[in-house]
Write a structure and sequence with these properties.
heterotrimer; A alpha+beta; B alpha+beta; C alpha+beta; A: alpha+beta; Uridine Diphospho-n-acetylenolpyruvylglucosamine Reductase, domain 2; Uridine Diphospho-n-acetylenolpyruvylglucosamine Reductase, domain 3; Enolase-like, domain 1; 5-stranded antiparallel β-sheet; globular; C: alpha+beta; Ubiquitin-like (UB roll); DNA polymerase, domain 1; 2 domains; 5-stranded mixed β-sheet; 5 helices; 5 strands
Amino acid sequence: MIPSSFDYFRPQNLDEAVKFLSQHEDAKVLAGGHSLIPAMKLRLAQPGTVIDISRIGDLSYIREQGDKILIGAMTTHHDIESSALLKEKCPLLPEVAACIGDVQVRNKGTIGGSLVHADPAADWPAPILALDAELEIAGSNGRRAVSASEFFVDMMQTAVQPNEILSEIRIPKTAKSVAYVKSAQKASGFAIAGVAVVIFGNQTRIGVTGVAAKPFRASSVENICADVEPLNDIHASAEFRAHLAQVNARRAVELARSRE
Amino acid sequence: MAAATKKYVGQPLKRVEDPRLIKGIATYIDDMTLPGMLHVAFLRSPYAHAKINSINTDAAKALPGVIGVFTGAEVNDKCGVVPCASQMPDLKNPNHKVLAGGRAYFVGHAVAVVVATDRYVARDALDLIEVDYEPLPAVSDPQKALEKNSPLTHPELGSNTAFTWTLANGDIDAAFKQADRVVHQCMIHQRLTPMAIEPRGCIASHHPGEGTMTLWTSTQIPHLIRTLLPGMIGVAENKLRIVAPEVGGGFGSKLNLYAEEALCCHLAMRLGAPVKWIETRRENAMSTIHGRDQIADYEIAVKKDGTLLGIKSRTIADLGSYLQLLTPAIPTLTGLMLGGCYKCKAVRMDVTGVYTNKMATDAYRGAGRPEATYAIERMMDVIADELGLDPIKVRQKNFPKPGEFPFNTPTGLTYDSGNYQGALKKAQQLVGWEKLLKQRDTARKAGKLFGIGISTYVEICALGPSKMMAAGGWEWGCVRIEMSAKVTVITGTTPHGQGQETSFAQIVADRLGVPIEDIVVMRGDTAVAHYGRDTYGSRATAVGGSAIVMCIDKLVAKGKILAAHLLRTKPNKIEFRDGNFFIKGSPKKSVTWKQLAPESYLAKNIPPNFEPGFEASSFFEPSNCTYPFGTHIVAVQIDRETGEVTFVKYTAVDDCGPQINPLLVEGQVQGGIAHSLGQVLFERTVYDENAQLITGEFMDYAMPRAKDIPEYLLGSTVTPSPSNPLGIKGVGEAGTIGATPAIANAVIDALSPLGIRHLDLPLLPEKIWKAIQQAKGSQK
Amino acid sequence: MKTLVKIKVNGVRHEHEVEPRVLLVHFLRDHCKLTGTHVGCETSICGACTILLDGKAVKSCTMFAVQADGSEITTVEGLARDGQLHPVQEGFWECHGLQCGYCTPGMIMSAVELLGKNPKPTREEIACGIEGNLCRCTGYSHIIDAIEFAAKKMAKKGAK
């Protein structure tokens, strides 16, 4: 319940935050806090310094740029859920946001914080993969962009290095033919099998979360888990996860098609 | 005569308790601070079973703000063992001490305690304690625990068997010989975690000058603690004050005296300062009692027309690793209700209580009776299925008729009153039975998995006659009409959400004929409520309310004497109605409490031998328990591909006798059904094969949420109980007891077209899906 | 090292020097002496600690007090005005939306936010709105009744 002691630093801008991060090995970035703080309360995470980036202006935004929409890493799940722009031009994201946690969690949790934490059962990875998003990472050498497929490296590990901060998520505008179907772990609400589908013309893109150690793009509904090893725990066996992935993928595709 | 007073009993009044709770100004245990108070934190074993070779507390002691760090070596011989009230003859008791001694025997077993000036410091100090554990083989499966080569939970006991117990009545062998069929089913009643939203906590304060101890604790049983604590801390009963402040839920998990409570008292004495302990959720999941956990083998001998001849059960009860207050008693309560609401001449239940390296089990909402009701109601469906009979007709065939009450069960109980057919009929009317059957037919024709489940249940509560209750089953009450004619009611029950501050005021207002705003109901402090047997077993209104009624009768009798004196007549010429004492035949010559009370206290004009004041206290000894009953009807639909269950209908008709406050009754029924819904569909306490607790937080122990709750159609019948003057049966656990089998039966009915006849709880989506797959496979 | 944290709680300025690790819920309870907000778990599920932070429902156990520096918080103690209960509080009282009362402050705050965003919610929308609040006593039905009651009352008030 009670975290261990730490030093607290509130940078004024992203460069300051990155600089501090490179100078302090056991520092952790605090965004919405809904992945980090629970871990700290259980003392599973005990950073020496916490860098609170919540006051850095202009890290929370949703804006159009050409055929893309740019989302600041500190944008809350709630802001995504209620964004008129996204509902119109990339409705998959508000649909997914509405499935995350609960109202209070969505008011504080951020898309950036969640993505970097990379819980294998979090919701965001599925649409990020299905949309083939681009993720911008700020480091001491400036900004660099990484594709969604390169972003997720392993369970709770992403392409974001210890001295870097995720700054922006760039997603393509889509038609209405999108859907997210999720089977939730009953206690926590995290995904046992969450499937996001984006239909682009005759291309169907499928992103899957909750099933394996890291989220993945599936090439087909039928062989959705062909290239992964589904997780096994008290909430669902590997066999059931694989089955639900297929069922939810099929249902998501049907739902997406019906919205065309 | 003054106007008739308003009637309150039977009204759905809003609660007197609520203003402080909705404003956030009530006082729960963690809201309290005492001057000089210190904070306690426990270091708990991460192993299910381990030798403790050494504990190094030096670094912890040296942390600024730490006042003391103690291990079993320093406190165990100064405190008694955790009490168990069960008096089973062959019970092997491992004698649970306040801290682990040389061995930790369950995950969460407290091995050291830190006392510090600040709760954050206390937590930090835990990380500085070094314990040298030597892991030992752990016992996790209670059936394997009984095998010859199983490791032992307590090596010194020589076996994992804690006790064996048998209930046998009637000629069971004859019953089985006469049977046309013996229907057999194994069932698992999975372990559950009560998870009251407020975890446990206490503050102990010792007053060395007077040698008295005050313990404020989030408990259901301040009075029972006052009786039991002397054995643990050596302070006499009459120097103990136990206070239950506002308590954030109990459900049986706070019906206990825990090691932590006694240890805090000891530390308060030892350190000369008040000490506070507040449990974390993980501690609550690990070291507050668990519920249920029985594996049973049922056999029922039946005639081919569905008549029950005999019921046999062989049960293994996984008690966990030690005994709390009622641990061994719980499965015996299952035995008492084995026959449910059916006539059956012969029963036999054999229970083996088993020790495993887990937290102790004890009473959890229903305490042994949900197991019995679930079993018999599941079996009635299985019997119907095997004999090709209608599940409703099978039940009706075996109901005692209203004229057959009081009804003697083969388990040795006497059901006070009942009308099982009446409740069933009303439930069928409410739900639209014929229409529902058609709805099922239509759904099935369309290939849906649609099921209807019922339970016709009876349960035993309003505990109870003192002969069957280890510490006595009476209840105490006191009613005082103050000089101002305001009324103070004191109850020895300890409500923690059940609303007796309101319902008792309703009873008193009606019977004394005073405005309800003039009444205050006090509870929970043994310095105020001198005696009591507290709240559990759905007893507060039936037993506690009856004690209040006895007090009122005494006050009215006394009032008549004084009224007669003031009205210059004889007491036998006085009538009392609606708060007025008047001369029979001359209602204009009357006095009210407003006139009587000051006369009695000022005592200037009282009759000879009349004691001043208007206070009465009474002990009510119930002649029997009470037996609420009802029918729940549930319809569900199952998603074939995901195994998810959706409610289509939920109807319940419950009979708890006359209802003092229908709003409160509805709340208890709905709350109880939610517990059942959890038990049937997703709740379970999971230990792995090494007895590691997996469901240690709300992240892994699934709790019912608002989205899970169906829309209810609730009704009631009213069959008074002859067991108490209010005729009340009690309703706190009835919802939980009646709902579990109804929901389970609905799910199984939905799967029955696939040839599935039973699945154990919880009916998780994966379990349902696997059963569907297997059924498909076997149909090929 | 302690920092000075300044938070306006229920319209009153509170300033306390606390370690950065002090949780917002402990700041409110132990430093501001507002014990209406409760703690029921440590994994941010139960919602008993829910407060309004700059108008939004937030679990105060999942924030450090320092994060809330400079913000405005409403706790359950701040809802009633001049002795008048908030309609949500009234609804809980009228409809028996509480039994032990422990989850109630958090539940009420979530309901206040819900009705602020959605003044005419369906029962299903209410159930979603309180998904982040666990109750073990009531079985939720009366809680939903309470919030419906409040919605109607607030609509009447608004219409006047």
